[in-house]
Specification:
2 domains, 9 strands, single chain, five-stranded mixed sheet, 219 residues, two-stranded antiparallel sheet, alpha/beta
Length: 219
């Protein structure tokens, strides 16, 4: 019985070599055999000066100034709306908290810390109740337990709003620093990719057709 040899061709990456070099042209060359494409990614002669990350952090202490220094003008509305929303939420929750705090204090004799004379667990006091955005309000009566629960509720949301606003402020500083670093990231030097065919014949009779890549980065 005769034996037929089959040749299997597969497109695989046989070898990847990366090395660095300090000199070279400012163009990216992609070569495959005799075909070469060139892409120019160098700096233009009128390139603007890059932002200093340390300076951007110092300026970002004033909200939005770091983004302005980095020339990220489109980020200014995001910064101011985020911080403004957090500050407004803190102010609104604080108003509601103090409304119920004042009503809660009215049940007690502040000099002794005991319930005021004639006040029982079933006694009710008038408390101001504001709507969601504080565009209107009404006055209603509530017991000491109801007022205490609402007081604690709005105090918790006030604290959350304060922490959220602080976190947004810190994030705006970090963002200004990271953006300044990324703008200074140098991708204008040599970045060369060579792609060449390669025949590989490991142990055995099979021959494989693969690709050989050489990628060069500038120091």
């Amino acid at each position: 019985m005769s034996v037929f040899h089959k040749i299997h061709f597969s497109a695989i990456f046989c070898f990847v070599s990366l090395w660095t070099t300090g000199q070279g042209s400012r163009n990216n060359h992609i070569a495959f055999g005799d075909i070469k494409d060139t892409i120019r990614i160098g700096h233009s002669s009128d390139e603007k000066s890059l932002p200093n990350p340390k300076t951007s952090v110092r300026l970002a202490i004033i909200p939005g100034i770091g983004q302005l220094y980095n020339r990220d003008y489109w980020k200014l509305p995001i910064v101011y709306l985020s911080l403004g929303g957090g500050i407004y939420a803190y102010h609104l929750n604080s108003l509601k908290y103090h409304d119920f705090l004042s009503a809660y204090k009215s049940f007690y004799d502040l000099s002794t810390g005991e319930l005021a004379k004639g006040v029982t667990a079933d006694s009710k006091k008038i408390v101001r109740i504001r709507n969601l955005l504080n565009t209107s309000s009404r006055y209603d009566s509530a017991s000491i337990d109801q007022i205490q629960r609402q007081k604690n509720y709005w105090r918790r949301f006030r604290n959350v709003a304060l922490l959220t606003t602080g976190a947004l402020y810190v994030l705006s500083i970090i963002e200004a620093n990271v953006a300044a670093h990324l703008k200074g990231f140098d991708i204008s030097g040599d970045l060369t990719l060579h792609i060449m065919p390669k025949l590989s014949q490991p142990a055995g009779n099979r021959t494989s057709l693969g690709l050989q890549l050489f990628l060069t980065f500038k120091n």
